[in-house]
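quick q for whoever's on today - can somebody do inverse folding on this one?? i tried earlier but teh output was garbage lol. tokens:
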């Protein structure tokens, strides 16, 4: 009879485990799964936000590169040709053609810088032109030059630089 009693006790325990234990374990697993899925959703939302920011930055970089490809940039420097002979050199360091290139200088140096070639009709990328400059004892050794030009759409641009002799 002992075996029969053991079998009955085992059946009761097994029945209790199946009736109460499995559902309890299933509920615990469901709760843990729900908590993990919420954490995963939060992380996924953060990843989506970061991906959107990265796409925005990439788009801004591409737009900036596209704008730089269509921009001209006229720069200036004073070049020593020989002893006490100088020229002021203008060049287009941009990637587009600059139109109607001109420059402004302070009143105190207008007499020493000649404006023979300006307004320069168009200046291709990498190209340059020079104007004569007469340097004497009273010439300031540095002064401001503002280069001005237009792009292909006719929009005006300028760049302010300080040049030294």
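ok took a stab at it. sequence:
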């Amino acid at each position: 009879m002992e075996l029969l009693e053991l079998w009955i006790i085992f059946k009761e325990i097994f029945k209790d485990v199946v009736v109460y234990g499995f559902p309890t374990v299933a509920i615990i697993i469901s709760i843990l799964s729900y908590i993990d899925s919420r954490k995963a959703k939060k992380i996924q939302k953060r990843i989506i936000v970061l991906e959107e920011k990265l796409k925005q930055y990439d788009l801004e970089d591409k737009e900036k590169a596209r704008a730089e490809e269509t921009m001209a940039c006229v720069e200036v420097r004073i070049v020593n040709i020989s002893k006490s002979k100088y020229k002021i050199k203008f060049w287009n360091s941009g990637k587009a053609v600059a139109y109607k290139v001109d420059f402004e200088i302070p009143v105190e140096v207008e007499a020493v810088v000649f404006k023979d070639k300006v307004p320069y009709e168009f200046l291709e990328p990498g190209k340059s032109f020079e104007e004569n400059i007469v340097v004497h004892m009273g010439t300031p050794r540095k002064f401001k030059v503002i280069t001005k030009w237009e792009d292909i759409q006719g929009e005006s641009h300028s760049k302010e630089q300080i040049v030294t002799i």
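fwiw The mean pLDDT is 90. also The two ends are 118 Å apart (CA to CA). so keep that in mind when u check it
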